[in-house]
Amino acid sequence: VQTVAATAGGPSLRGVPIGSATGDIVRLLSHRQQSQLSGIATELHLPPRMIVYREDSCAQCVFIVGRGTVKAFRDLPSGKRRVMAFMFQDDLFGLAEGGHYVHTAQTISAVTLYRIQVDALTPMLRCDPELVFQFLGKVAHELRASLRQTIIVGRRDAVGRLAMFLHMLEQHSRCLRHTPQIEIPMSRSDTANYLGLTLEAVCRASRTLERMGIIAFTGRHVARIVDRRRFDKLVTAL
Amino acid sequence: VQTVAATAGGPSLRGVPIGSATGDIVRLLSHRQQSQLSGIATELHLPPRMIVYREDSCAQCVFIVGRGTVKAFRDLPSGKRRVMAFMFQDDLFGLAEGGHYVHTAQTISAVTLYRIQVDALTPMLRCDPELVFQFLGKVAHELRASLRQTIIVGRRDAVGRLAMFLHMLEQHSRCLRHTPQIEIPMSRSDTANYLGLTLEAVCRASRTLERMGIIAFTGRHVARIVDRRRFDKLVTAL
DNA sequence: CGTCATTTTGAGGTATTTCAACGAAGGTGG
DNA sequence: CCACCTTCGTTGAAATACCTCAAAATGACG
Question: pTM higher than 0.90, yes or no?
Answer without folding.
Answer: no
